[in-house]
Design brief:
The chain is α+β, with helices and mostly antiparallel strands. The chain has 20 helices and six strands. The strands form two sheets. The chain has a four-stranded mixed β-sheet with strand order 4-3-5-6. Strands 1-2 form a two-stranded antiparallel sheet. A hairpin with a 2-residue loop joins strand 5 and strand 6. Helix 5 runs antiparallel to helix 6. The longest helix has 24 residues. The chain is globular and about 70 Å long. The chain starts with a helix and ends with a helix.
Length: 444
């Protein structure tokens, strides 16, 4: 059977179905979170962006590169939105798909919505469909896909963003299929960008959004791809080493993909979060200065690439379970300030990080992804203290409250230097009836 047609028919069923109110409400929160994270990301890497402007001389245009205050040509806006949207590794995602969902999709949809005069609600419906496409593909090929060294945000995200935009722009079935075929050819994403102080993880999202735009342009122009770009020696074989891949159903376990996504309270890789939260729980009894050693047991996929104790900079710190856990124990939090270049160089946290050991636990590995747990045991001169966290704050099973989400949003916007009145206006515009995207993004 043609796997590509099977997949696209499933996704079309999502588009054709009335979106429940609670799912649309979740999508509004996802959009707001993306906007705040992207503004903060632009501030975080502003020095590098200045060098980018100087060398690349991006052409002025009509489309907002969010968080920069600049209106650029379409391709530049799409690319920079992706680069800034993932700069802090603070954007949403899912554990079962091992993928960041929103940043590639919104980075593409918002400039296109500006160009074609689309409303916020039209963007949200397309995004919900794109989330489902990215997630369904990711969960169908994980964890083997990750084991081969692929970053699903780049690979599966290219497919989801392309499909989302094709629906928002009213592509015909034929145009959508050919755009999808082009996206399958283009999809790429290397996990090695997480290692050894590399700062290129955001580039996976930036080029994903840009490649999705190019796939749309080729599909609209009538360039034809293979009749089954997923099958044979196509996408599945490239991404898993196997041709026979079982597609998971859409609405897996009865919920939309966007409802499965987490919102991060900690400014580090999601794999670090259970241990960070356990360390925060243990602060009352385990004083950092008294720690002799910290043992962390977690699921096997979280260990490789995240157990390092040599921390050359902020990007490395965000990927390190030992560093993030040490931040939780020392500061009682692991927000943006705990991962600055200045914070990373602190002697106290560097010394504590060296006392942490991370290992894979067979039982925790067995229950993943249903449970994404860590067990933290801290040995001090006065005793041994242990805590286990199965669902850290921000997971669908333990979501942020409305107040917690608003505090997160406000904090990110404040970090980005966005005036409070403007920040409030952006927040309200997402909930305003018949609001258009140009009105939304031109404020930031």
């Amino acid at each position: 059977m043609n796997k590509s047609i099977e997949f696209l028919k499933m996704i079309d069923g999502i588009w054709q179905t009335q979106i429940p109110d609670e799912v649309m409400a979740r999508a509004r929160r996802s959009l707001l979170d993306y906007l705040a994270v992207t503004c903060a990301g632009a501030e975080f890497q502003k020095d590098k962006l200045e060098k980018y402007w100087e060398f690349a001389e991006p052409e002025e245009g009509k489309f907002r590169a969010i968080g920069t205050g600049k209106d650029l040509v379409l391709k530049e806006a799409v690319f920079l939105n992706g680069l800034n949207g993932h700069a802090l590794d603070f954007d949403d995602g899912t554990n079962s798909g091992i993928i960041h969902l929103g940043s590639p999709i919104f980075s593409l949809l918002l400039p296109l919505a500006q160009r074609y005069g689309k409303s916020v609600d039209e963007v949200l419906k397309a995004a919900i469909t794109g989330y489902e496409a990215s997630y369904t593909m990711a969960v169908s090929i994980q964890p083997g896909h990750k084991a081969m060294g692929y970053h699903a945000t780049g690979t599966c995200g290219t497919l989801g963003a392309t499909i989302a935009a094709s629906y928002m722009l009213g592509f015909s079935d034929e145009e959508r299929f050919q755009a999808f075929a082009s996206a399958c050819v283009a999809a790429s994403g290397m996990l090695k960008v997480l290692d050894d102080g590399s700062e290129l993880k955001p580039y996976n999202v930036a080029k994903t959004a840009l490649l999705s735009l190019t796939a749309l342009q080729l599909g609209k122009a009538g360039f034809k791809g293979h009749a089954d770009p997923l099958g044979g020696r196509g996408f599945f074989r490239m991404m898993t080493g196997k041709e026979d891949v079982e597609l998971k159903p859409v609405l897996l376990n009865g919920t939309y993909a966007i409802m499965k996504s987490y919102t991060k309270p900690y400014a580090s890789c999601r794999y670090t979060h259970p241990a960070v939260e356990a360390a925060i729980h243990l602060r009352e009894n385990a004083k950092p200065e008294d720690v002799e050693e910290i043992d962390i047991r977690t699921y096997d996929l979280a260990v490789s690439g995240h157990d390092h104790t040599d921390i050359p900079g902020s990007y490395s710190a965000k990927m390190s379970i030992p560093y993030a856990t040490s931040a939780g124990l020392i500061y009682g939090k692991a927000g943006l300030q705990e991962f600055t270049e200045e914070a990373v160089k602190g002697k106290e946290i560097a010394a504590l990080t060296k006392k942490v050991r991370v290992s894979a636990d067979a039982e925790l590995s067995r229950v993943f992804p249903g449970i994404q747990a860590a067990i933290v045991t801290i040995k001090t001169k006065d005793g041994v203290y242990t805590d286990r966290v199965d669902f850290p704050k921000g997971e669908p099973e333990n979501p942020l409250t409305d107040e917690e989400f608003r505090n997160r949003y406000d904090g990110l916007m404040e970090y980005a230097g966005v005036d409070k009145a403007v920040s409030d206006e952006v927040f309200n515009t997402v909930y305003k009836e018949n609001s258009n995207v140009d009105e939304l993004v031109k404020k930031i």
